[in-house]
Amino acid sequence: MSLPGVYKTTLKDGTVSYRASITHRKKHISLGSYPEEETAHAAYLLAFSVLSDKSLQILDHKQSLPLSFEKWVVLINLRDNGIYFATPVYLMKTYFLYYLEPELELKFDLEDLFYYASHKIMRRGGHLFVADYGMQVTLPSRYGIKNYAVQGKDFQFINGDPCDFRYENIKILNTYHGVSLIRKKGKTLYRARIHIRSYYLIGYYDSAIEAAIAYNKTVDIVKKQYPEKNYEMNYIPELKASEYACIYERVTISDKIYACFPEKVT
Predict the structure, then answer these.
(1) What is the distance of C-alpha 43 from the center of its chain?
(2) Do 172 and 163 touch, CB atoms closer than 8 A?
(3) 3's torsion region: left (phi>0), alpha (psi -120 to 50) or beta?
(4) pLDDT for the residue numbered 227
């Protein structure tokens, strides 16, 4: 006869395994699989303690415990807030926390709760991402931060906390491909660059829109020589077609762009 909270099962290779689970507020929660029945039962007993003892907090988790940290957070949130999430989410009054580790928590607005309650955040090589429709989507990209963006130049976390992804804390300084905000001789300018064989300077401009259009103009030039190259163009919906054409005609680009081709193009 199995111990309480434990179910004996057999894996495909014939190995015996023991699954632990607990039911709380009519919600059946899987706690994990274990090679020994006693360990699975210990996980069940610990889960029962977490759900009944409010003195146990998220930072009390230890690696030696039979419950994973993720399950620990799930249980504490269910105990304190009465809501079950499959991911390590803990609800606050005006935002929620997503725990990757006991000492590493991400902050999000409540409007993102449905998404992160059903999408697990993963980390690889210092990068955070989620699996969405079979693709890996980087976490910053969901907030308008491009993959090549540099913190402090292209975007910033207003309160200085790079783990705080609440919308009010993210300020996008530059939204265009190939454009970055810089300080040059005490003046704020927008630098446009493009990668051909290496990075080439297109020019410095007074506005982000000018720099973005200069980048687009350079892409048109480059693709005449290298039609196989795949560049993302800047989309500027706030400009009328005539306004865009006027800036496109007026904006200048560096002679070095033309010089990198075997024959000068126009």
Answers:
(1) 31
(2) no
(3) beta
(4) 87
The answer to whether 7 and 28 have CB atoms below 8 angstroms apart is: no
* Contacts for 157 with CB less than 8 Å, ≥ 6 apart: 151, 164, 169, 170, 171
* CA distance readout (Å), 196 to 148, 223, 230: 16, 10, 11
Q: What is the largest CA-CA distance in the chain?
A: 84
Distance (Å, rounded) from C-alpha 111 to C-alpha 232?
30
Tens-place pLDDT, residues 213-237: 999 999 999 998 888 888 989 988 8
pTM: 0.74
Structural tokens at position 56? 């146990």
List Cβ neighbours of 263 (8 Å cut-off, separation of 6 or more): none
Sign of CA dihedral 69, 70, 73, 74: negative
Using an 8 Å Cβ cutoff, are 216 and 248 in contact? yes
In angstroms, rounded to a whole number, what is the distance separating the alpha carbons of residues 18 and 97? 31
Look at residues 33, 15, 16, 26 and name the one whose alpha carbon lies nearest to residue 5.
33
